[in-house]
Amino acid sequence: MSYLIIVSNRGPFSFSEQLLSNVESNLKRGRRPRGIRFGEGGLVQAMSGLLRPGKWKTTWLGASMGDSDVDVARGHYAFLFEKMKKEKYAPEHFPYIEIEPDTRMHFRYKDYDFYMRFVFFDTEHMHGYYNKFSNSFLWPLMHLTRSPLFYKRIQSFPRPYFEKNDFIQYISSGVTFANTIIDEVRKSKELQKKSGDIVIWSQDYHLMRISEFYKPLLDEEVISAEKRKKISIGQFIHTPFFNIHEIQGLIRQDKRDRVKAEANEPFGENIETALQKLTWGMLSNDFIGFHTKEYCDNYLEALQEWFPVKIRVDGQSYEIYNRDRVTTIGAFPIGLDVDKIISEVSAKKRLNYKLGKESLYKKIYDDRKAGKYIFGGLDRCDYTKGLVERLGVFQYAFINLRNLKKDARLYQVTAPSRSDNLDYQNLSMMVKQEIMRKNAKLPDSPIILIEKGIPAPQNYLFMKEIDVMLVTPLEDGMNLVAFEYILSQKYKKANDRGILVLSTSGASRVLSQKGFGEEDGIVYINPFKLKDGGEKTVAAVLKNRHISDKLIDYVEKERRVDDWAQKNIDAILNCRKTP
Questions:
Q1: Are 123-335+562-574 and 338-559 in the same CATH fold?
Q2: Separation CA 170–CA 158 (nearest Å)
Q3: Contacts of 424 (CB under 8 A, 6+ apart)
Q4: pLDDT reported for residue 500
Q5: Per-domain residue ranges for the chain?
Q6: What is the pLDDT of residues 63-109, one digit of tens each?
Q7: Looking at the domain 338-559, which fold is it?
Q8: What are 448-502's pLDDT values in tens digits?
Q9: C-alpha distance from residue 58 to each of 61, 98, 190, 334, 501 (Å)
């Protein structure tokens, strides 16, 4: 058996005091504790095949997000988990946590069976590296892939906010993660075996430097060169990667601001030096995965702009030669849990969600019966999703349809996200205000906002009812909603299926490169050209376009998330590590 350490900012599960108190209360009353949601997040879905018994013995290492995580990890709730196991509630209906002699936390729930490890930070440290540097600087900046710079043109898109102290906290968090990883490797029995591999696989933009930190620590440990060969290191970036040419204006403005503020220290950090260190630090991985070739190219261009590296094309991958080592990068578009989604949208299943006291299904049914085309959007509330622009696209589509004596309704589902961040609070308010303005201007108030989100599996059934699905990001790493919508149409009659209106994203790049277009029910639009987007949408509706069997078949066979995870691990294991 081989050993896998998955490292992410957020782990797969956290324990709150309220959750554990409810469990204790139910046990005292002789009731079975309520089931929990596990495996619904995109990353957990992506890793689900690796979290079940099989070839890999897996540990998932992530930052603590629950107020009772530390107590669970120290075994203070061992009695509670043992009682649930004795009553046969765990692990079938609730997670069963066993603290093993080496203090490792063994997590079992239904058919999941893996180890968990929390990384603990105080509130101020978490705020600096996660809320401020990762989410207020890196997140918006990574989406700056093409002209025009969104934050200069789009009111809802914030300027990436950089502070030196936040970067220091980010570096510090990487060191903490690195030391925790080393501790896990030390505990690994697989390290002592002759056969079997050890893979360390980190996820996303929160952890761009950690391989640079734990690689030297591995060398410092009393581990022979032969044993170190067993260890392979990889990373996957789930966001886009910034375009070095498009952020030059941001870098120059940052330098001017620092000179003006007399903050231009001889060894001070600024936007450019921080990004140089992050880009360079990623080279400590053996393999780096991105969603698309364009994101790979952006990373390579940043390297070539800043560093004297040699790059070689190797089939579908690139090899970056740096001193005595090689880092390989490649494009592996993420997939989704195809079988689960298809099982949830069968012909017999129907949307069962209340909009207030009213059935959402009945409301949509009545709108359709009245001759309205049903438009839909389903996102978390994020400024990268083009929510305000989407409302403009719908407005032009609505006006065009009305001019043709036709009608439409937009159901926009927008789940809360990062609600403690001021930029997200402003966006939420902006979306509400824009909907109010458009509803006041257009006949019959045609836009309905559903703010709480629709949880799985009802979200798939919601998409099943949509005639025109609007997926309009300004830029998006992948956007699985596009693929989910395609699958949601599988069991509908060919002429009853809807169309997908899709803008700049990994999904649009993947689908367009495969040759799918309007004939297959996909309308590609520019989210900045609202009138053009609305007109293209209406034209496709009037041409009676629908999601095609060919498109559904492609997503069903080629965009499976288990394949994505396995391809990444194979790439990490098989890439060249020395020149």
A1: yes
A2: 20
A3: 381, 382, 383, 417, 418
A4: 98
A5: 2-119, 123-335+562-574, 338-559
A6: 999 999 999 999 999 999 999 999 999 999 999 999 988 888 999 99
A7: Rossmann fold (3.40.50)
A8: 999 999 998 999 999 999 999 999 999 999 999 999 999 999 999 999 999 999 9
A9: 10, 15, 12, 20, 39
- The residue with greater pLDDT, 33 or 433, is 433
Strand partners for 6: 60, 201
To the question of domain 123-335+562-574 being in CATH 3.40.309.10, the answer is no
Measured torsion, CA atoms of residues 451, 457, 459, 464, in degrees rounded to the nearest 10: -160
According to DSSP, residue 283 is labeled G
244 touches 212 (CB < 8 A): no
Q: How far apart are CA 203 and CA 43, in angstroms?
A: 9
Contacts made by residues 368-374, CB under 8 angstroms, sequence distance 24+: 368/467, 370/407, 371/406, 371/407, 372/407, 372/408, 372/409, 373/401, 373/406, 373/407, 373/408, 373/409, 373/467, 373/468, 373/541, 374/408, 374/409, 374/411, 374/465, 374/466, 374/467, 374/468
Q: Per-residue DSSP letters for 323-392?
A: TTEEEEEEE----B-HHHHHHHT-TT-----EETTEEHHHHHHHHHHTTEEEEEEEEES-GGG-HHHHHH
Inter-CA distances, 424 with 301, 412, 415, 418, 419, Å: 31, 17, 12, 7, 6
CA dist., res. 492 & res. 466, Å (int)? 11
For 295-305, what is the mean pLDDT? 97
**If you count them, how many residues does the chain have?**
579
User: Rg of the chain's alpha carbons, rounded to an integer?
Assistant: 25
Could you tell me where the DSSP H helices lie in 456-560?
458-464, 480-488, 506-513, 530-542, 549-558
Tell which residue, 282, 331, 285, 324, has the closest CA to residue 306.
282
